[in-house]
Amino acid sequence: MRLPRKVARVTDALPARRLLLVHAHPDDEVTGTGATMAHYVAAGAHVTLVTCTLGEEGEIHVPELAQLEAKQADQLGGYRLVELSRACAALGVTDHRFLGGPGRYRDSGMMGLPTNEHPRAFWQADLDEAADQLLEIIKEIQPQVMITYDENGFYGHPDHIQAHRVAMRAAELAGDAGPEKIYWTAMPLSVLKEGMEAFRELDDNPFADVEKVEDLPFGHTDDEIAARMDGTDHYDQKVAAMRAHATQIPDNSWLYGIAGDFGGEFMGVEYFLLAKGERGPGEGPNNWESDLFSGVKTI
User: Fold this and answer.
1) Is 25 annotated as contributing to ligand binding?
2) Residue 239, CA distances (Å) to 161, 244, 269 in order
3) Which of 87, 84, 85, 83 has the alpha carbon at shortest distance from 38?
4) Using alpha carbons only, what angle is made at residue 95 by residues 299 and 130, rounded to the nearest 5 degrees?
5) Which residues bind Zn(2+) (predicted)?
6) Residue 34 contacts by C-beta under 8 Å, 6 or more apart in sequence?
7) CATH topology (fold) of 16-276
8) What whole-number distance in Å separates Cα of residue 219 and Cα of residue 126?
9) C-alpha to C-alpha distance for 141 and 143, rounded to whole angstroms
């Protein structure tokens, strides 16, 4: 009698450590998690990026491409798809998907705008339907760690909030087969305070109208932060990925001011809250994790 052939699991062909990131628009992956992504790619982990929209409602900082905006040709989304591909290449990420396929969900624009009501706006997406699409990716990749935003989408954008809801719902549906640890992007108030002082002399100061750091729509106390990822070795990759998103990040952006004046000290270090799972061993004065897979069983 012939024995049944053993069918290999998809994950048998993948590295032991698998990281899934769920972001709202092209370029979101770079600003808050670019160094972390590059770090884990270089360390041999499998990094999967899921982007929920094409970013059709974004501003355009390249004058010769202004006609691509939503009110004119409405072709910005297709252009940003190419920018995202270039950014992923800069970070070394080879596994990138759009939730439901490219164009399934549309950029909703800022909170309260009429674009929130577009029938394809991600803000209007059926939660379970969108979560089911992400669940299929979770079943395929079986990531031990997932990164997304907090309940406020870090700063209140409706698509960021929806990305949080979808990611958390998909993890709930996955049950024990879902990610063991879930992190939310974050920024310590202590770092923001340092930033306010450092940027005070910059012409393009992002904190110019902020009197105190507690007035910002984001920021957490040091004891709330669980992980500090030092990706300063990949600072150049992060900057290259930012430059790939030229329509969204102008050449005179304060982000490049940081890059020029402070280098990897600010650009290469990223912080996270732990939303699910056990906190692993930490280090430094705050006992922050330096590895998102700390304490995770890898198979």
Assistant:
1) yes
2) 26, 9, 13
3) 87
4) 90
5) 25, 28, 160
6) 87, 91, 231, 234, 237, 238, 241, 242, 270
7) Rossmann fold (3.40.50)
8) 29
9) 6
Phi, psi of 143 (to 5 degrees): -70, 140
- The single-letter code of the amino acid at 73 is A
What does the chain come to in residues? 299
Rounded to whole angstroms, how far apart are CA atoms 166 and 160?
10
Tens of pLDDT along the chain (299 residues) come to 444 444 345 567 899 999 999 999 999 999 999 999 999 999 999 999 999 999 999 999 999 999 999 999 999 999 999 999 999 999 999 999 999 999 999 999 999 999 999 999 999 999 999 999 999 999 999 999 999 999 999 999 999 999 999 999 999 999 999 999 999 999 998 888 876 766 666 666 666 666 677 777 778 899 999 999 999 999 999 999 999 999 999 888 777 666 555 556 678 999 999 999 999 999 899 999 999 999 998 76
Residue type, 189: L
Tell me: is residue 203 an annotated ligand-binding position.
Answer: no
Q: CA 188, CA 111: separation in Å to the nearest integer?
A: 25
28 annotated binding-site participant = yes
